[in-house]
Structure formats: C-alpha cells, structure tokens
Amino acid sequence: MATTLITGGTVVTSTGRADADVLVDGERIVAVLQRGSVLLGTDLTAGVDNVIDATGKYVIPGGIDAHTHMSLPFGGTAASDNFETGTRAAAWGGTTTIIDFAVQSHGQKVQDGLATWHGMAAGQCAIDYAFHQIIGDVNPDSLAALRGLPDEGISSYKMFMAYPGVFYSDDAQILRAMQVAADTGMMTMMHAENGPAIDVLVEQLLAQGKSDPYYHGVARAWQMEEEATHRAIMLANLTGAPLYVVHVSAKQAVEQLAAARDNGQNVFGETCPQYLYLSLEDNLGASSEEWGSFEGAKWVCSTPLRSKEEGHQHHMWQSLRTNDIQMVSTDHCPFCMKGQKDLGLGNFSKIPNGIGSVEHRMDLLYQGVVDGQISLERWVEITSTTPARMFGIYGKKGVIQPGADADIVVYDPNGHTSIGYPVDKDGNPTGRSHHMNMDHSAWEGYEIDGHVDTVLSRGKVVVTDRQYVGAKGDGQFVRRGLSQYLI
Amino acid sequence: MATTLITGGTVVTSTGRADADVLVDGERIVAVLQRGSVLLGTDLTAGVDNVIDATGKYVIPGGIDAHTHMSLPFGGTAASDNFETGTRAAAWGGTTTIIDFAVQSHGQKVQDGLATWHGMAAGQCAIDYAFHQIIGDVNPDSLAALRGLPDEGISSYKMFMAYPGVFYSDDAQILRAMQVAADTGMMTMMHAENGPAIDVLVEQLLAQGKSDPYYHGVARAWQMEEEATHRAIMLANLTGAPLYVVHVSAKQAVEQLAAARDNGQNVFGETCPQYLYLSLEDNLGASSEEWGSFEGAKWVCSTPLRSKEEGHQHHMWQSLRTNDIQMVSTDHCPFCMKGQKDLGLGNFSKIPNGIGSVEHRMDLLYQGVVDGQISLERWVEITSTTPARMFGIYGKKGVIQPGADADIVVYDPNGHTSIGYPVDKDGNPTGRSHHMNMDHSAWEGYEIDGHVDTVLSRGKVVVTDRQYVGAKGDGQFVRRGLSQYLI
Amino acid sequence: MATTLITGGTVVTSTGRADADVLVDGERIVAVLQRGSVLLGTDLTAGVDNVIDATGKYVIPGGIDAHTHMSLPFGGTAASDNFETGTRAAAWGGTTTIIDFAVQSHGQKVQDGLATWHGMAAGQCAIDYAFHQIIGDVNPDSLAALRGLPDEGISSYKMFMAYPGVFYSDDAQILRAMQVAADTGMMTMMHAENGPAIDVLVEQLLAQGKSDPYYHGVARAWQMEEEATHRAIMLANLTGAPLYVVHVSAKQAVEQLAAARDNGQNVFGETCPQYLYLSLEDNLGASSEEWGSFEGAKWVCSTPLRSKEEGHQHHMWQSLRTNDIQMVSTDHCPFCMKGQKDLGLGNFSKIPNGIGSVEHRMDLLYQGVVDGQISLERWVEITSTTPARMFGIYGKKGVIQPGADADIVVYDPNGHTSIGYPVDKDGNPTGRSHHMNMDHSAWEGYEIDGHVDTVLSRGKVVVTDRQYVGAKGDGQFVRRGLSQYLI
Amino acid sequence: MATTLITGGTVVTSTGRADADVLVDGERIVAVLQRGSVLLGTDLTAGVDNVIDATGKYVIPGGIDAHTHMSLPFGGTAASDNFETGTRAAAWGGTTTIIDFAVQSHGQKVQDGLATWHGMAAGQCAIDYAFHQIIGDVNPDSLAALRGLPDEGISSYKMFMAYPGVFYSDDAQILRAMQVAADTGMMTMMHAENGPAIDVLVEQLLAQGKSDPYYHGVARAWQMEEEATHRAIMLANLTGAPLYVVHVSAKQAVEQLAAARDNGQNVFGETCPQYLYLSLEDNLGASSEEWGSFEGAKWVCSTPLRSKEEGHQHHMWQSLRTNDIQMVSTDHCPFCMKGQKDLGLGNFSKIPNGIGSVEHRMDLLYQGVVDGQISLERWVEITSTTPARMFGIYGKKGVIQPGADADIVVYDPNGHTSIGYPVDKDGNPTGRSHHMNMDHSAWEGYEIDGHVDTVLSRGKVVVTDRQYVGAKGDGQFVRRGLSQYLI
Ligand SMILES: [Zn+2]
Ligand SMILES: [Zn+2]
Ligand SMILES: [Zn+2]
Ligand SMILES: [Zn+2]
Ligand SMILES: [Zn+2]
Ligand SMILES: [Zn+2]
Ligand SMILES: [Zn+2]
Ligand SMILES: [Zn+2]
Predict the structure, then answer these.
(1) Residue A40: which of B3, B255, B401 has the nearest Cβ?
(2) Residue ranges of the domains in chain B?
(3) What are the residue boundaries of the Amidohydrolase-related domain, all occurrences included (chains A, B, C, D) (predicted)?
(4) Cα–Cα distance between A83 and A72 in angstroms, integer?
(5) How many CB atoms are closer than 10 A to CB D183?
C-alpha cells in the first residue's frame, strides 16, 4: 500500500500541540516526527508516495461519533440515512469512525438483532464502524447473550428508561443487566428519561389540544431526565456497573452525574451538539411559512431541546470544560420532513424522534473553540480521544501515534463552512450543502470558522479538495475492548 | 550532540500506550516511531550513537515535581537538600524537572528574592528547574513586580494563609494579588490553612503540656484547611483568578474544590504522597526506641498528616481517580532529625515543617498502579503531563513527542525498589538507600513493585545501571508560560 | 358531663413550658390558667368534679400516632392487633389518636375499601381514630374517588413504590394521583422503596440459600430507598404535590429530603422508633435459643432496620434535631411469631412485614429526651403537635388550649417503665408487660426513665393508677382537614 | 394592678390558632380561656377592670425585635433614635421587646461598655429591653468578662468579621471567644462579611470615582458574605459554639447555613425586612429630585441590599418558609439624611450604615402573610416566639400563656397601614406617618393590609385608638437565660 506524509501541520492531541509531521505506511501511522521530516540525515519526504501539505492547519485524529442510528426503525418509519449515506456524510465532516446501535427488539434474540445490523452495515460504509447493542428485552436468554458480547467485539449495551412498549426496560430488568455489566466490565449506556411518567403528560397535552412540536419539549420535562439519571446512578451504585448516560440535556442531570463522580462512582455523561446550541424556545417553538408551527418538528428528539431561559445550554458548555460531561456524540437519527416527520402533523407524539448531525459534529464543536467555550485540545479530546478510550478502541483510534490506524483529519482554521441549504441572490435554493439523506438541515444557517480539509481513513484519502474520493465499503467493522476508564 | 534510540518499550502517555520507539537527537525528541524503527526501509537503529533497550519496560515522560523547597530557610534552619543534592536525588527517582519556590521575604523586593534563588540554583542542578514565586509581602511595589514575573518565565506565585508573621498574607493582600493574577493569567497557588486560628490552638496545646509531634496534627485541624480552601475559592471567584491549592490533605477540602469546579470555576488541587499513604495515628503518633514519642517529628509537615480513622487517605486516592485532585507533587522540604527536627523537642511548634520525598514520588505513585488505585496512564498524567500543562511547560516537558526535551524515564515494572535504611541480618544498617541529604527516611520500609531503570535529561543519560552518571550543572532554568488550563 | 382540673403540673408545648393548670369541661379543654387556679378571686378547684394532681409531672397533649395498621391483611395473614386491642394498647402508652390506613385493594372501589375500614373500626376503639387512604389501584375511577376524599374527612392518601403485584403503583400512576393531590391539597404519603429492583435481589438471595431474616435487610438496600425517595420528590416537584415520605430509615434518604426542602419544596419525612434504636446487625441478625437465626423475624419490617456500622440510627436522631425529619410514627403492624412470622421460616420473603410499637412510642421518644437526643419540647412536637398540623387535626388535637379536645397525658419523669416480658427470680415469665396482641415484644428489655401516669381521651380518664378504665367504643372517627404546612 | 380581658379574638401561636379569650391580671397573663369567658358558670368578664374587644382580630404575643441599635455611635455620628424615641416607635408597631447591643469599644472594659448602655436605656424605654454584648476587643480581660455575662442576664454576644479598625475581630480572636461560648452556652452572633477584602474594593471603587451609594452594594459583594458565613460556621464547628448569623442577605450565605444545619450543627440565621423587599437596583440605585443619585443613601446598610436580578429576595422568603432562616429582626439603626447620611456625599464609605424599621417589622411581615409568602402562624413564630426561644426569654415573652408577661398585640386584618410621608392632593407633605426619629422613611409608600390595633406591655395598654398612651420608663431591663435551641 501507499505511503503518505502529512507535513507542516500542527498535530493537536487531547493534551497539547506539536509542530510535527505524520508518516503513514499503508493503513497505519508509523511515525510522528520532527517537522521537515529529516531524521538522522534521511529526508523521508523524498521516499513517500504522497505528501499532504498541512501548513497552517491542524492535524488531528479522525472524529469518533459514538452514538448514531443508521436506518433505525422508529415510529413506523426508519432513519433516512443508511450506513452508506450516513457514513459518507460522516467522512465529509471529519468523522472516521461511528459506533452505531444494533437492536434487539422485543421477543427477538440478541444474536439475531446483532446479525441484522452486521448485515445492514457490511460492505456499505465509507468509514470504520462498531456497534453497541441495544437490549430491548431483558430475559434469561438475552442476559446470557449479553454476557457473550465482549467476545464479539461489543463491549457496551444500551437500555431505555423511556419508550414503554418499545425499548423500555423496567428497574428489575435494568438491575439484572447491570449485574452482568458489573461482572464483565461492559459499559451500561442509558437513555435516562422516566418514560411512563412522560407518556402520561403526552397523553394529557394531546387531550388538551396541545399537539405542536413545542409540547414535545414540555412533556419531556427536565425533572424526568434528572430523575431517571439519578435512578440509573443508584442502580449502578448498587450493582457496581459502570454507567454512561447518553444525550444529557438538562443541567440538573449533569449535577447528578457530577455528584456521583465526586462520590467515586464510575459514571459518565455524553451530550450532543443540539443541546449546546439549540433550544425549546428557538427551535421546538419555531414556525415557518412552509410548515407553520410544525416547523419545530425538525428538532424533535429525545431527550428534548431544553429551555434557554433556564440556561441549560450555557451550563452544558461549562460541563464540557469541567469534565462533568466527558464527550460529545450526535445521536444522529435523521428523518425527512416530508413523509417522515410529517407523520406527526397534529400529534407531536407521532413525530419520529431524531436530528441529523453526523456530518457537522466536528465543525460545530470547533466553533466552540473559536467562541472561547473550549480549548483546541479539549475539542480533540471530546470528539475523538475520549470516545476511543471510553469505548475500548483507543490505540487503534483516537490518537496519532505509531501503530494507530491512519484515521486523520487535516482541519483548516482559516477555512469556512456554511451549513444548510444556501439560496442564490434571488432566494432560490442552490442545492443542499450537506450530504446526509435529509430534505432539510437542522443546522440551517450555522456558519463555522473552520473547515475539514482532508480526511484519511486507514491511510486512504477519502475527502480532499472538497470532494469525496472514497468508496462504499471502505469502512470495516471494529471490534472493541473494554472501556479504558474502568478502575 | 549524540543520538539515542529507545527501542522495544511501551510508551505510556496520559491517555494510553503505544508499542513504539523514541528517537532522540541531541537534547530533543525527534520522532516516535514504530517499534523496530524501520521507516520506509531505513533502519534507524543503525545510525544512532546509543541504543537503549526498553523491552518489557515503560517509556514515560520524565517526572515533574511542581513543589519543592531546596535550601528553604524555615524556623531558624534550612531545608537539608540544596539544589545540588536535591535535584540529584530527584534524578535518581525519575524526576527530570522540579519547580521550586523563590521567596520574597517580608520587607524584601520580589526581584531580589528571585535573584537569590537564581543564584542558589544556577550551575548546581542535575536536572532542569523552574521557579514559582512566593509573595511574602504584598505591597504596591511587590504587586508591580508580580505583574512583571511572566516576562521572567515565572507564571505562578504562592501565598500563605498560614504562618502569621512569616509568609502570611491577609485577605486584603490576597485579594490584591489575585486581581493581578486575573489580569495576567498567572496561577495563584495557595497554602490554605487558617494560620491565625491554628496558632491559637498551638499555644493552648503547648500550655496544656501537649508538646509531642502528634499535637501538630491536632492543632492543624481539618476544619481550618477546609475553611481556608473555601475562602481562597471565594476570593478567586470574586476576582476571577485561577486558583491552585497546594498540598491538599483533608477530604473536606477536596469537597470544596470539587464543588467549585462543578460550578465552573478555574480551581485545581494538588496532593502529595504523604497524604495518600501516611497518617496522624501511624506516623505523627509514632514512637521509637531512639526518639520515643518524638519519632513523629519525621512527619511534621503542613498541612499535617490526617487521621486514617476519618478516611482522608482513602478519599484522596479516590480524588485522584475522579480528577477532583489533578496532580501530585512532593512539597519536598527535608530536615534531618539531628540538629534540625530536634529543635522542636518539647515543643512541636519548633519542629521544622517538611518531609523529603522528591526521590520517591514516581515510585510511590507507581505503587498506586500496582495496588489498583490508579491506572498506568493516570500515573503519567498526575506526575508529568498535568504538571507540565498546569504550569506552562507542556510541549517542552511532560510529553514524548517530536520537539519535546528528551526528558525520558525507562521504568521497569518487573524491578523492585526498597526505600529506606536497610539493615543486614544482624540488624546493622547497611547504608542508606536514598540519595537525599537526610539522616532518616520518611518512607522507611516502603517496598515498590517497580524500578526507575534509566533516566534521560535533555537527551543525556543521567541514571543507568543503578548509577548516577550525570553532573552538577546539567540542569538549566526553564522559563514557563501560562497554564494551559485557562479558558 | 364532668369537669376536671389538672393542677400543679408543667404544661409542655412544642415551644416551651408553663407552670399552669388545665381546666376541662366535658370533652373539651376550656382554660389553661395560672397554677393554683384562682382567677380574679374565684377558686376554680372548688367547683370541679375531679382534680388530678400533676405536681412534678408533665402535662402534654395526647400522643398522635399517624401511622398504624390495625388488622391489616398482609402476606396471607393479618396484623394481630385489631382496632380494639390496638387502640387500647395505644391508650396505655399515652397515645390518644391514631391515623390508620384504609385500603383500596387492586380491582376494588376506593369507597368500598374505606367503608370496610370504617366498619372494622366503628365502635371498637379506645381512642379517637382517623384514616389515610391507601390507593392500591390507580385508574380513572379511583382518581375520581380520590378527589372526593377530603369531603369525607380523609385529606391524605398513600401509595407504594414497593410490593409489585400488591400495593405497587408505577410512576405513571403516581404522577396521575399526585396531580389530583396538587389540585386538592391532599398530602401524598409514599412508601419509598424501589420494589421491582428489590424483588430481584430477594429472588437471587433466596436462590443462593440466604433465607434468614437478616437477608431481608440485605435485599432492601439503602440505595433503593434513597432512589425511590428521590423519584417521589421529582414527581412531586413536577406536579406540585406536597409529599410525605413514611418510615424513613436510610440517612441517604434523609439527605434527599433535606435537599428538596432547602430547595423550597413541600416535602416531609417521618421516621419510626425502630429506625432510631434497632439495627440490621443487632436485631435482624439476632439469634435465640427458641428461634435460632429466625429470631430476627421479630424485626422484619419495610423499610428494614439499617446497619448501625453505617451510622443510620445516629443520623436519624440528628435529623429529628435539625427538623430534616419532622415527626415520629410507629408504622404499628404487629404479627405473632407463632402462626404468623413463622410463615417465613426458610424464606424471609414470606415473613409478614411489621413491628408492634403503638404502645411504646411516647416512652421510647421520651427516653430520647433523657438521653439528650432531643429536647422536651421537641418530644411533644414530634409525637403530637406536628402530627396534628401535618394531617389537619390541629386545634382539635395536638395542643392544650381552649376549644381543643381534652386529650391529655400526665407524664411522670420520675416514674419508670420496663418494656417486655419480665421474668421472676427463677427466670419464669411473670406475664407480659405490654397490651398489644403479640406473643413477643420487639422492645423486650428496653427500660424507660419515665412513665405514662394518667391519660384523658376527650375529657374521660382512660388510664390511671396503672389501670385501663376506658371502654371499647370510647373512640370516635375524626374528620381531618388539609395539612397546615401547605403554603 | 388592673385586670384586663381580651375577648372575642383569635389567639394565634406559632403552631396554630384558637378562638379564645386572654385574661390579664396586673403584668401577667393568668389564663387563656374559652371564648365568652364563662368558666364553670362564672362570667369572668364581669369582674375585670377593662375589656378589650378583639372580635375579628388576631391576638398575638408582642413582637420581639432581637436586633436594634439605639443611639449607636457610628462613623462620627450616632443612630438618630435613642432608647426613648426608638422604643416608642417599636410600641407603635406592635413590638414590645427589643434586644439592643451594648458595645465594648476597642480598649474599653466590657463591663464599662455594658454599664454605659444600661445608663442610656434605664428609665427611657416605652417597652421592655434586653442587651446582647458587642465584643469589640478580644483580650484576656474581655474574655473573662464575657464568661461572666450570663450572670448579668446577657446570654449572647456579637462579633464582627467586618469593619477593620472599628469592631473587627480576627479569626484568632473569634476562636477564643467561641471557646468561651462553647463552655458557657452563650450564643455567638456574627456579622459575617469579609471586611478586610471589602475595604480593598471600597478603596478601589472610590479611586475610580465610583462614589455613589450604589457602589456600597457593589463593594460588599455576596461572595464576601458567603465566605465569612462559611468561615464562622467552621470556627463554630471546631469549637462547638452555637452560632447565629445576623442580617443574612445573600442566598448563597443561606445555603451555607442550611448545609451546616443539615450536618447537625447548631447554626441559625436571621434576616431583616429590607432583604425581603428592597434591592440593589431599586433602592441603592435610586435617584430623586432632592438627592439625585445620592437618594440611595437612605438604604445604605451592611450587609447591603442585594440584586433582585440575582433573586436573593425571592430566595430569602423561601428560606423563611423552609426554616433555613429562623427569624426576622430589623437591625434598626436609623440616620437622618440631613446631617447624617449626607456625611457620605461624594464618598459612599462615609455614609452611616443603617436603616430604620423597628416600627414596621410586624406590619411588613404581616404583608408576607397577605401575599402568601408565609402562614399566619409562621408570622408569629419568626417575629416573636422564635426570637424569645433563641435568646432565652421564652415563657416570659414570646407566648400567650399563664405566667407570661402580658405583652400582647391585637392585630386587625381588616385594618390598613400606609407607611411613609403622605402628601395631600397638592403634593404637600401632610406630616410623617411614622414615629421614628428620622427625616425620611426607608419604607415610603409601602401599603400594609393590616393594622396594629392595640398594644399591651406587661399588662398596660400603651397603644390604642391610634394613640400612644404609654409613658417613658414603662419598659424594664429583661434578664435573659440561655437559648432554648441548644441540645
Ligand atoms: Zn436515547
Ligand atoms: Zn440514540
Ligand atoms: Zn505550604
Ligand atoms: Zn510547600
Ligand atoms: Zn410502608
Ligand atoms: Zn405502614
Ligand atoms: Zn452587623
Ligand atoms: Zn446590627
């Protein structure tokens, strides 16, 4: 295979920066070396197949999005990105690994669910991928299967305290699964919302004629996220299972996580770009000429966008700085407005839950660097290094060092990225500027003071010169080990 | 200068491990490269002057001890290690940088204090050194000087809420200094104990005839550390100054730090090996044939060793895991029992305060890895990487990457280190096993399941084959920038 | 009806003491007057029918036990005290009002459950009684009935987060009921334990052969009480319902209650004598000649007795001092060892849950005064005045003032009470010393430095000279208003 | 002496209400009796000298203002109310006892300070009075004197963490005094603000030309109140002294107090009407035609009025409901604008600190009842019963019961009180409506939906029919015992 030298850039790690070149041989990084790449008199530049000039740019480990849902069946439809379109969009945005969720549905065998997802992904992906396992039906059989998952390269599983009748597990089920996790070292991922209580509120709001997307945010009150977060923490405390709470959006939930960690528990939290930038008022409460007050459907996801009046967004950025929240994933789960989101016209509870962001995570978080919310190092940490450590792929992914997969992004701080559907001077759309399979953008109008310049996936350039040059099937399944954070 | 290749080892960073070789050219690291060191067909091993075989060993960035007091005048005597003996002992123990404290005494100019310390250190050191500045007399003059210190490569200063009449600053003085720190980005380091209140307790205990070393620990009650920590935090909150609390020993003080960080404040804490292993009961309360109940004088330091009954030590290890405490320094301040500590016979308040540990920090913390208290990565983080980031020398120090100083330790997990003064089978001392200028060891009898194998300081091997092969004056002054942790 | 003067005593209220006489006319108190009872020259002593000499004694409002379960069906048997025996025992112990729990079982109408309890109590009681309503089946019908209960003099209802399949309500049901409570001002009483999770632990312990009563305490871990307490608080926060958590035993649950109150929520907590004095180690873990390790069955109740090693009992007394716990009830639910508790021989989960204490609450708490745990005023507050205010009968009950029912206890601080089954000098039992319908005492051997001297129930002396002189049917149903604590 | 019957009213206590009459014989209450006052056939109404008809009104224990400063020397002037004018105004407002502060100045003997205050008050007062002792100079002599104060009927003393050079005590002094308090059971009252730090901010603001009253509030930042509160708590924790923090205004300080109480410490807090109603923005930041931006001087007091934007006032009402703040005093310390407050024209630090409210406390807090902030019972508790219990005069004061001083207020919930300087229809002042010796009112324009109808002081009617009918010298010195709250 080819050799590549990325030269002249600033290598950014989770702890600092180095003016250094990176030498790639085939799929792997073989050296990080002094800028100029002359070692003991040998000019390495001369011998390589390709040279990428990264002068004035950041060289970072490829993004790892640890929470995506390609093709996820939900509410009678399915997420609009499949593994092909979704991972290609990810590549466009500087993400070189996703960890998606295989689903065990009610009544199904865990192994069968996993096989289905392997089938959907194999040969389709633009970048490497791994799986968490959703356990949708805890029973002696599935608990036994759960115990075997680490041998399959699946070291984490997810449960839902929401969605009764669908993915929901009750506390008895959670307890049993967590006991397996404590034994095996698997990470328990939790969707922490009190679903049974929320469903009452949903029913009551609808009965009152409050059917707009805005009421999705009202029904899923922060109290029910805080509560479920605390409950998950105590079940983890009782069993000794490590716990990772997904898509944290309420500041009060963060306080629960922080208290548990200060108390010595192995508890972690993830947030998503939407909880940093978007809000109940501005987005769920939005209206447009096209959709009226149903415009907010674009941002219906769970946990919901929170009130900016209450200050959740501000607090969530702070939590990234203080490490009370450890990393940022997207919970990428896109649905088109036409034919999907519009299933919920007149009834917000029928709107498929999800936002598409897999392409924008690296950019949106980089904007946090520009805005002074986080440091450049913290950007790399929360988008790549910590996800790798958290989910057992560090060394292969999440770091630029010899032996690691050459998943590398050259990021241009002098570039610019406009997200959304630009219009020309007459107001006519010029064609969409993103690559996800959606008929709209949840991030319409966001301007980023930076740009994903070049993307390498296992040594192969897949994005360069604003072109996708990879191929379907480039991506491989990644077997994961246990989380590095376990003590 | 010579080239060196460290080959066959496992490079450990604060985030993970890599099987990789490290190439050194002169004083700097020039590459981290695949094990075997063949790049594009070129065998780098052939061309280097020296090869260090690190097979089966850890290759880590040299230790950074951010809190030492060589030759510090205290209580009518002075710390028994000077910059020569102290830095040589540090090198023996795998520490390749110290940050010592220059002192401005009452009535003195800051510049003069700093010049004195430069004078004491220059040409004496075995390893690189830097300075924090103690501000012992806040006045318009010293505040102006403080503002200029970053230009001198001094980006942090220390104040004392204890020791009235000596180093003590009152709250008005602390406020004024912190305002300068908030302006300049300097780190405020705080000795957080309520000195005026403690001195009342000291006087009362002595009046009651309670003069043994044990009462040093009684007088310096945890409430007075917790209180001062909180006070420092609030003064920092008011001024916006970043705060770093030194030698944290009380679990309640940790809780104050954790709460402030969760609240978004730039607040950090350091602990020391003595607060992880030693206790009021076992050490301050010790007695021996030689010294009777004055034996405890060996462990008189401030903040004091805390009660193990109250669980501080256990909590302090936990704080290292949860990052509520960010790093470990020694507060190395050695005094001999004869002629120094014994000044306090019959009056614990006359015992010079300090313990000598500069040589043992890397080993003692590695034992925490063996004991399952912290991970291998966390060991590197709290002993080297975080100190470098915290005090503005990261990139040059604290990391193994191209461009960094070649301060490298090869650590042998299969080696063993016995600390203290071993005796032969007849009970006769066989000569001391440490290299600090002390007539005893505070760590007598500690056994470490690991060993400092080889130490490079800026590319030069200074410790190898259990021999010190460096020279006085090898170490240079390191100018420091601002802390990397400031947002 | 007759007039009575209680003269020479010290009237103790929840805020202080007065040397005063109390004049009773028929069923009511008509005056509290200066000791000696001469008003404007009129000697009232002369004109009364009875004079009770309270010299050297405390005159207090009769005890109110807000948590009893006479004849409660549980686990295939029923509480061994019925309304006759239980209220008579209460009277013996200085309690003049109980609030018992009417039960709506699954599938039953609330009104029918209430009618059943009215039927069981009417004409049987020695003292006045009121009812809380247990809602065991939340549905549209029972919610409507709940809304009407205040008109029946029932201003509080209880739900269970434990006992799935019996009394258990899920979070959706709790939410709906709390909404009614928020509308009506009714108090929500909560049995706060995570039943579904606990039942898993029970099953697993039994499967491991751990069938002794001790494991009842192990299975019902404090984490599951803390968790449920927090969950109830958040559901109350969301709905605006006032919340009263019954039988709090874990110190961590108290912390949750305290935090909620400091945060401004209408949240209250009750503890019971068993959580102040008894423990997992000493009682659930007890063994005897007669019963072996099944001896612990005497103290099987839920929430369970907690570990004294963990310090819950100490913390619970403290909570009474700081008002983080507002009052003390008994959760009186007695079962005999023979024929009832012994249903659980070989399987702790079959042991009927409950302890009999209704007779001893006033004495056991008075001992807290003697031991310096609480003040004399606090004793009156937590046993009578606060229960009356909390549950809407203050003015009629819980206070000595004109217009109040003459429910009065003369308590002798120089008396003594030995609880349990005394033996004569040959070790032969001399007959039981308590009056509850139990074949043992949970308080065997407790010695109290005080004695219930005289008890008046609505003006009638029912206990005097160590004799019960009242009659079945003396007690009447008390209609209750809303809690006085609602703002 | 005369006998009086107060008939037809509702007696309100800290725990509830009773429709009852109150019989007074001479200076004392001799009975609380059924409304109608017929006992055993004797109509008491017939025999009394005076009958007060309280029909439709509340009969409450006279107000106790535990924090006043009559004639206090401050900043080169003295509080404008002396004991004659101040206590008369108190009587007008339904307050029948004040606890003022005797002052030991620097260099003075405690006994001499106390004697001076006895001299100023004796024969001057309209109502009863007691003293706390300010200790302005801790030394062996004053500590010995402190120990003797309980024998003088002085069971509490106050220290200042603010006002360096005037009343300030350093932490060593506070520790020594608290040790005496722990021994004797005396209550330590603390002015909790970090004076040395605040004085730096004052100096800096003035140097920047920020001299308006508004900057008084800026300089005395909440951080410095929170900090000092925590420090006082920890010194109390160390010594075991009970602690009462005066004039709490910052919500963060309340959190410190609440945490300490939940932790079992004997810690209490008082707030004042100004911290419930007034704010930095509206009052310190006020301007007027007459005074321009110096208008704010009317509300210069310490601790200062807090920002309503930050929500302190809202939180302070909540704290009264949750009992995190136990009582309300005025800190009455009036100064006229002309000749006193105007000393600080051009320099806010020269404005005498203080607000006059002694006349309005009962009304202003009653308005909290009308507004739904607190219950009627809580009103009586925080204005009379708790002050009496807290400061050792309960039984004699603070309660309506036989043996108590007949300090009684008949309060009319249908009356109305307009505070301030009303103007006629032409805008001309019609004469002031208050009776304090001030040339303005800090409460101008406040309208109260209630009215102090009749006031009895030790059995003598002193206010009736909107007239003061008492006399100078009616009031006597009250010797106080220890706080009832000590366990
Ligand atoms: Zn989810
Ligand atoms: Zn998801
Ligand atoms: Zn220090
Ligand atoms: Zn030091
Ligand atoms: Zn229960
Ligand atoms: Zn019960
Ligand atoms: Zn004050
Ligand atoms: Zn004052």
Answers:
(1) B3
(2) 62-390
(3) 58-462
(4) 10
(5) 12
In whole angstroms, give the CA distance from residue D23 to residue D400.
Answer: 10
Local structure of D130: helix, strand or coil: strand
Any idea what the Cα angle at residue B60 is, between residues B59 and B66, rounded to 5°?
A: 160
Tell me if C172 and A238 make a contact (CB, 8 A cut-off).
Answer: no
* Signed CA dihedral, C91, C94, C99, C102: sign only: negative
Q: Is C35 helix (H, G, I), strand (E, B) or coil?
A: coil
Taking the CA of residue B269 and the nearest CA in chain D, the distance in Å comes to 19
Residue D171 contacts B where some CB pair is shorter than 8 Å: yes
Instruction: Find the CB nearest B39 among A35, A44, A395.
Output: A44
Question: How far is the C-alpha of B256 from the C-alpha of B222, rounded, in Å?
Answer: 12
How far apart are the CA of D163 and the centre of ligand 8, in A? 12
Chain B meets chain C (3+ C-beta pairs below 8 A):
no
DSSP H helical ranges for D93-128: 110-121
CA distance B226 to chain D (A): 8
B191 Cα–ligand 3 center, Å? 4
* Cα–Cα distance measured from residue B317 to residue B251, given in angstroms and rounded to the nearest whole number: 10
Contacts of B428 (CB under 8 A, 6+ apart): none
In the numeric block, which tokens belong to residue C446?
């407790």
Q: To probe the interface with B, which of D171, D198, D239 has the most B CB atoms within 10 Å? A: D171
With beta carbons less than 8 A apart as the criterion, state whether A360 and A350 touch: no
Is C197 an interface residue toward A (CB < 8 Å)?
Answer: yes
**What ipTM does the predicted assembly reach?**
0.96
- Cβ contacts of D396 within 8 Å, gap of 6 or more: D388, D404, D405, D478
Tokens 């002037």 label which residue?
Answer: D77
Q: What pLDDT tens digit does each residue of chain C (487 aa) get?
A: 799 999 999 999 999 999 999 999 999 999 999 999 888 888 888 889 999 999 999 999 999 999 999 999 988 899 999 999 999 999 999 999 999 999 999 999 999 999 999 999 999 999 999 999 999 999 999 999 999 999 999 999 999 999 999 999 999 999 999 999 999 999 999 999 999 999 999 999 999 999 999 999 999 999 999 999 999 999 999 999 999 999 999 999 999 999 999 999 999 999 999 999 999 999 999 999 999 999 999 999 999 999 999 999 999 999 999 999 999 999 999 999 999 999 999 999 999 999 999 999 999 999 999 999 999 999 999 999 999 999 999 999 999 999 999 999 999 999 999 997 766 777 676 667 899 999 999 999 999 999 999 999 999 999 998 999 999 999 999 999 999 986 5
Give me the residue from B16, B33, B44 closest to A389, CB to CB.
B16
Residue in this structure with the two tokens 């109305």, named with its chain if needed: D416
Cβ of A183 under 8 Å from any chain C Cβ? no
Provide the token pair at D250: 């910052």
Q: Do chains A and B touch (3 or more CB pairs under 8 A)?
A: yes
- Fold entry, domain C62-390: TIM Barrel (3.20.20)
- Quickly count: other Cβ atoms within 10 Å of residue D38's Cβ: 16
Pairing of strands C417-418, C408-412: unpaired
Asked if A197 is an interface residue toward chain C (Cβ–Cβ < 8 A), one would say yes
Which residues of chain A from 264 to 323 reach within 8 Å of chain B, CB to CB?
A: 264, 318, 321-323
In tens, the pLDDT along B349-391 reads 999 999 999 999 999 999 999 999 999 999 999 999 999 999 9
Half-sphere exposure of B286 (CA within 13 A, CB side): 18
CB contact under 8 A, D235 and B226: no
Cβ pair B34:A35 closer than 8 A: no
Q: C20 in contact with D at a CB cutoff of 8 Å?
A: yes
Return the C-alpha torsion angle D423, D429, D430, D436, nearest 10.
Answer: 110
What 3-state DSSP class applies to A275? helix
Question: In angstroms, rounded to a whole number, what is the distance separating the alpha carbons of residues C70 and B441?
Answer: 70
